[in-house]
Design goal:
Layout: E1 4-7, H1 10-30, E2 37-43, E3 47-53, E4 57-62, E5 64-67
Antiparallel strand pairs: 1-5, 2-3, 3-4
Length: 68
């Protein structure tokens, strides 16, 4: 099986986990199931970043990724 690996800083990791926890709590309270989207964006020159959407749209910032 092939793998897509996205490396996050500690701050990005905490931010993402907090947003997932908050969104999950809102879904639980409102009895909904919204899920979430992680969008990896990349342009020439090796610049890549992630956008995260659940209850809110969150810009995670620049990341490093690899496809193996």
């Amino acid at each position: 099986m092939r793998e897509l690996k996205i490396e996050l800083s500690e701050e990005q990791y905490k931010l993402l986990n907090q947003e997932i926890a908050n969104g999950t709590q809102i879904n639980f309270e409102e009895e909904t199931h919204s899920g979430f989207t992680v969008e990896l964006n990349s342009i020439e020159g090796g610049i890549s970043w992630i956008d995260f959407k659940m209850q809110n749209e969150l810009e995670i910032g620049e990341v490093t990724w690899s496809l193996t």
